[in-house]
Specification:
Length: about 300
């Protein structure tokens, strides 16, 4: 029986990813990377700004990859990816995927200016945000991706984050780019289907992957996939895609489990009262209904 190139085992056997990376136990980021590279293959160039993955990949001259990687400054993932793509076009090199791979801090906050510029120009590369909802690499500080009520070292339990998480996919969809989507390490087939679709599209593409972090979210490492699945099933992190900024489609229908179960499994929320968890449930329901309204309008 012939093998498809879209097989997880091939990523390891082909040497695109190797053993010896430096991720924490239970980290969702290398799981996400493995699925993405399973689809994109060897003809891929990765741009890594300052984030956990610059450490995970390994210190120079070593690397957990056998494809080209370009380490760059925190705020420049999108602009560097734009430059690399332009260089390939000048040299008439085709069939190479350029991927900017950044955390939520380098996407939602520090890198949003370069990302917005690349989206406005419709530059031809894939931007992947692996979202662990804080600046984990520098000591678990809050980002604008941190959920309301969460503990971080800069939003301690007595003074937790008071504002909602920024909706980055909506921001990208507002640029009217060809493709934007959410994905999760708990739903690998959905994730790979979206990468496969993005691979076939020309122009700016954005994929937002929820990537749980055991030390930052304060849970036991073996629960990573379970938590990621609960985020989707509770509608906290819905899985959907947006084409051309207007065509919305939900790709995984959530079960609608209570948000409380998801929240209570994480130590970063242990200070919350029952009333505060109820408020999170109401906000989650409101945001889900807003998303449904967009889907229904687009039908």
């Amino acid at each position: 029986m012939g093998r498809s190139e879209d097989v997880d085992l091939d990523v390891l056997e082909s040497g695109i990813m190797t053993s010896g990376h430096l991720a924490c136990q239970g980290c969702g980021a290398p799981v996400a990377m493995r699925h993405v590279l399973t689809v994109l293959g060897k003809r891929t160039v990765l741009v890594l700004p300052a984030c956990c993955y610059t450490i995970i990949a390994g210190p120079f001259p070593y690397s957990g990859f056998r494809i080209p990687i370009y380490h760059t400054a925190f705020e420049t993932a999108a602009s560097c990816a734009s430059g690399i793509r332009a260089a390939f076009e000048v040299k008439k090199k085709k069939g190479i995927q350029v991927v900017a791979w950044a955390g939520d801090g380098g996407t939602f906050d520090i890198g949003i200016q370069a990302l917005s510029g690349a989206a406005e120009r419709d530059d031809d590369f894939i931007y992947v945000c692996y979202d662990n909802e804080a600046y984990m690499n520098t000591g678990i500080q809050r980002s604008s991706a941190t959920p309301k009520g969460a503990w971080t070292t800069t939003t301690p339990a007595r003074h937790p984050k008071l504002t909602r998480k920024k909706n980055m996919v909506e921001i990208m969809a507002a640029h009217r780019i060809p493709y934007a989507a959410t994905a999760s390490v708990a739903y690998p087939e959905d994730l790979k289907a979206k990468v496969r679709k993005a691979k076939k599209i020309r122009g700016a593409r954005f994929i937002h992957i929820l990537s749980p972090c055991p030390p930052g979210w304060r849970y036991s490492p073996e629960l990573t996939i379970k938590l990621a699945r609960m985020a989707v099933e509770s509608k906290t992190f819905p899985l959907y895609e947006v084409e051309n900024g207007t065509d919305y489609r939900i790709t995984v229908q959530p079960k609608g489990i209570p948000v409380g179960g998801y929240v209570k499994m994480q130590g970063r929320f242990k200070h919350l009262t029952a009333k505060e968890i109820e408020e999170i449930q109401k906000t989650t329901d409101t945001e889900w209904n807003r998303l449904l309204a967009r889907v229904e309008v687009d039908r």
